[in-house]
Fold these 3 entries.
Entry 1:
Amino acid sequence: MPGTLIIGAQWGDEAKGKITDMLASKADIVARYQGGDNAGHTVVVGGQTWKFHLIPSGILYPRVLCVLGNGMVINPKRLWEELDSLSARGVDISPSRLKISRQAHLIMPYHLALDGASEAALGQAKIGTTKRGIGPAYMDKMSRQGLRAWDMLRPDFRQRVIRAVEQKNIWLERVYAEPTLDPQAVADEYAGYAERMRPYIADISPLLYDAYVAGKELLYEGGQGTLLDIDLGSYPYVTSSSASAGGAAAGLGIGPRCIDRIIGVAKSYQTRVGSGPFPTELLDEIGDHMVDRGAEFGTTTGRRRRCGWLDLATLRYSARVNGLTEIALTKLDVLSGLNRLRTCNAYQVGGETWTDWPADGEALEGCAPVYEELPGWEEDLAVSAWEELPAETRAYIAHIEQRVGVPVKLISVGPDRDQTIYR
Ligand code: IMP
């Protein structure tokens, strides 16, 4: 099946990087469709560690064409930092390897300034963003004031940048009492990026469609996760893009029928970074065990991730809203050494029991998880076949499948590629 979509089924950081990398090695095209450099994933190839924020890790495979979709917001400065560092390590970054949608929006320096200023103004109620300017860039997109990659091809690009900076200076100065930006300096900087980006900017919709029709292998890569989706996540504690399956078609200019397989990547426990309710959060030594064994620190911001028991009510929600065809279950080895495991299958709210995730940041605040308990295992899971997994581990996976109603086809028991079990 040529069109495979891979998405985060939780609050991001599901270790999508490894799964994406494995699938990318067999793909012809890897395309990202939303978000920007708020994403971060690490892949280990041949003993070398690579960190990616904007560029799909598929760039490491010479036959793969990487695509940045129209649903994305791209910070050209960060794009070039990433491309230059790849190039310095011998990766071919010529325009034949990477296409950027002409409709993708640009992250400008004022977006970063506004992200920081807005978070500071919110005080205790802050979202806990990555401060990469993501929200303000999508605000401009929706209010039809954004600058797009396409504008970089137009002769008056500098003037457009100057006008945009002048406008945003009013906000910075009058609303947030923040320092303003020098319009000429920003225009000069972005004119330089435009010069370099021009050969990469393309109409990606026909490119993807033609490849799909020709039977090529396409991998669509989602950033963040379903519970951070602007429409379907734990609003307002979400990112500003469509991180779930629905975003893929709109963010790439393809029809939904070009998506044949939808893999939800889920961690074997639950994590989140930033603010917002988290019913199964563990603020005890079990949570510390997950942070330590799972190295739960953000790739983009280095923040310690909050950890808790696996929430199957959210996973069931994810399976429904994304139409998951399968689950890739990651970091199962992190649970080794815990003698009892819990999963949340419903919430207690007042006198009521909710089996569906309410998808509302405020309603979630009052939710107490209803847990089920299962036996844990001691073994470190250094195995490569399903039959070799401890009986308790297999029972844990069977329990997930039973409660969520989606098969777990891939199980990851460590960061290396060979620490993967297929079913
Ligand atoms: P923003 O995307 O920077 O606006 O941040 C909004 C929320 O999404 C915050 O809670 C961030 O921590 C979270 N977030 C954004 N990107 C990621 C990611 O790649 N992984 C996990 N959380 C993310």
Entry 2:
Amino acid sequence: MKTETRSDLPVFERIPRHVAVIMDGNGRWAKSRKLPRLEGHKRGAKAVEETVKAAAECQVEFLTLYAFSVENWTRPSSEIKGLMSLLVQTLKQYEKVLNKNNIRLQAIGRLMDLPETVHRQLQKTITSTAHNTGLTLILALSYSGRVELVEAARTLAEKVRQGDLKTSQINEKAISDHLYTGGLPDPDLLIRTSGEMRLSNFLLWQISYTELYLTQVLWPDFGREEFFNALRSYNQRQRRFGTV
Ligand code: IPE
Ligand code: IPE
Ligand code: MG
């Protein structure tokens, strides 16, 4: 099975292996049009489809999308309900798109905190795309970078207590391996839309040397061309990792 590519695909010298995205600005997009916030989220779901397809076309290996944070549970219950049912609907609809484009779905975060309907549909889509060998799309749902670190610390402490691990074996690799992203390369590029200049508790450990791309574009207006703009910017960066 192959990923569909379009004839207008730009050539990039370097393709990041792992791109992470803080998809922000759905509410402001809706507000500026005097629409309910949920309309912004619906348009945001379209932007997800375009971005995922563009990443697959460019042969990015991993794309991690921040879809819902642990802190987002503090939003009004009507918005949370709307977001959760949109999630189920979108996962159902995208199953075909993902399979057609050889994309495998995975999820990170406190997935057990999601409503049963979301959890069930998520597992269904993950299973139905598990055989795909192209892009791995990772949805961060009920995700918190700090909670992820706390959970890793607890697992490591328990292993020491059981005698399966020595304290001296707790090193950077051991911590990385015990995060939800264990086994994945750290993101090479982090995109945040809507002009905010903060991390909002996303992948705190993993982005220590990630290149940042911040754009004013609101998430529902993001898509194929915007994704390519981010890759163009990435291609102009000189990554030094502390050396000269
Ligand atoms: C991002 O858009 C989507 C989620 C956090 C679920 P927002 O809903 O945060 O939109 P703004 O930031 O209010 O514009
Ligand atoms: C970050 O956006 C979380 C997601 C994109 C899912 P927020 O809109 O929740 O972040 P803050 O509150 O502006 O920092
Ligand atoms: Mg926001």
Entry 3:
Amino acid sequence: MSSKGLLIVFSGPSGAGKDTVLKSLMEREPGVRLSVSATTRGPREGEQDGRDYYFISRERFDQLVAEDKMLEHAEYCGNCYGTPSEPIEAWTQEGCDVILEIEVQGGAQIKKKRPDCVSIFILPPSLEVLEHRLRRRGTDSEEAIQKRLAAAKGEIAQALQYDYVIVNDDLEPAVEQMAEILRSEKQKSIRNKDFIERML
Ligand code: ADP
Ligand code: 5GP
């Protein structure tokens, strides 16, 4: 069947549970890889350079963009974020499904460049729960929380541009829905065109 991996755009407002869902998904789906983004944001407590992000200066970020080494990039709440191009093609060719956990401007850029991507938007059960989760996470200053909440409605308004929506109320069903989407996408006839043609 299809030997090429999926390219998955995964977006949602800050605090919706993207990291939490992905962590759980990666534990049960060994064929899935997560792209490590570059950012000019400073590391949060517990975050590691090269694992969670490549934490780089604004000058270095601008240089990578100028050298066309970012598949997409965007500014979000005062910091720059971007996806290094290099590993993406190699991993999907190897047959791995690659997830880009990126915000909506970057998601739109990927959809244009790679219309074959699968896009998934994760929502909190309500805006109240979103605020509660952001505060309980305890990683951001009050100012950063306010900026993220202010950005949330604009981001949620973009959810209809995505192929799928997952509501992250209870974690397990949300993770199962994500796994199910990936399984179904792999069975799409168009993704198995080569296999069908070889048989003929
Ligand atoms: P994001 O990556 O979208 O910014 P996180 O994964 O960091 O969001 O989640 C934000 C907070 O909400 C974290 O404290 C996390 O433990 C919590 N959280 C995530 N998913 C759930 C869930 N289904 N139920 C309750 N709390 C959750
Ligand atoms: P955080 O600062 O909470 O880690 O991330 C803030 C936002 O930036 C999140 O919506 C996250 O998905 C997004 N983001 C992370 N990496 C990238 C990236 O490489 N490109 C884009 N466009 N957004 C990203």
